[in-house]
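Handover notes (outgoing to incoming on-call)

Open items:
1. D-amino acid dehydrogenase small subunit: sequence verified, structure written out, both below. Nothing else pending on this one.
2. Nothing else urgent.
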Amino acid sequence: MKVIVLGAGVVGVSLAYMLAGDGHEVVVLERRDGAALGTSFANGGQISASQPFPWASGKVPGRLIRWLGRDDAPLAVRLRADPAMWSWALRFLMRCTTARNLDGAGRALRLAMFSRGELRRLRHELGLSYDAEERGILKLYRDPRSLEEAAAHAEWLGARGIAQTLLDRDGCVAVEPALATGAAGIAGGTYTAEDESGDAHRYTRALAERGAALGVVFRFDTAVRALEADGARIVAAATDAGPVRGDAFVLAAGVDAPALVRPLGLRLPVYPVKGYSVTIPVGGSNAAPHVSITDEDRYVVMSRLGDRLRAAGTAELAGHDTTPNRRRSGAVLDAVMSLFPDAGDAGAATHWAGLRPMTPDGVPLIGPTPYANLFLDTGHGTLGWTMAAGSARVLAELVAGRPSPIDLDGLTMQRFQKGRGRARETG
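D-amino acid dehydrogenase small subunit structure tokens:
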């Protein structure tokens, strides 16, 4: 079967590799000039099955009010005449309850845990090198009340197979000694030993090379303009270099996905949420952490990538604008230096901004569509690196006509449709 994959980020390349391993003829269409140059280029590096909780929570509305007008706020909204943004934001706010947050977390966790196992299998089978660290993730809290909520989350995760340890300040320093100089404001934290970190860009490029060796054809600098349908089937992807025909099509195009299927009558509630990262050269410094860190109160994550420290975070609703804002990326850098003041030369940090493809409920859209040979693999938000391998395995099975290896209830686009999906979205 000839399968056309739209998008060459970590999600699309993971899928292309698995499809080729299954014996398919695979063509990947990507508008950029290489793999992993969009959202996958400089993300936070965490493979975090322990962090499935969507951003939509009961705390968000109050925080949004406090953050209005602050350019360095963890979550910023750029007011604009964009119906898609307002529709997405309304759905997001409707999810800001404890019950709906846990509902989304349960669905995300199902995929994240499966994906973690698939990633490990690929790494060991292929011997992939991407600055992987299997030292877990340490999540830090400054507010004692937030630490109490973390204890409840740890109990919830434990009942679902994720072992998480609750720590006081000294316990956090014991897990990551580099915290010793910056831990004064820390109330405590949680530690998940099974989580990992690594460079998603290096991983994706390495996997693309393995895919190419299996016969995957990567057509870079090829922008998809539309999908051409004949009845209930897609027959070609119309590109700026002409039509590309195939037997099956998988949409792994991130924030570009909604525009590609809108002419087909499909509405995907995926909206770009801009995030920022900084990469600091740290050499072999022990003043920089080796354990991956999440600063919960500042919405910033940090991962050691060999001789670099990557920190990423914040969220900004600003449409498809990728223009860097040094004040916002500077806030990410400040979060790093407050915890690890001697980690490296902050002045030598590389600043970056990218767009996360987010759904209102924080759970990706994977699986079938009303078109028999069109499948979705998009909307992974902050967990694209975490969920890429698992999503790829699911889609590879579905494209081949085999059953999904995990329950897809609440993961497909059906949840945003009328009837049963509407009940799921608002329930």
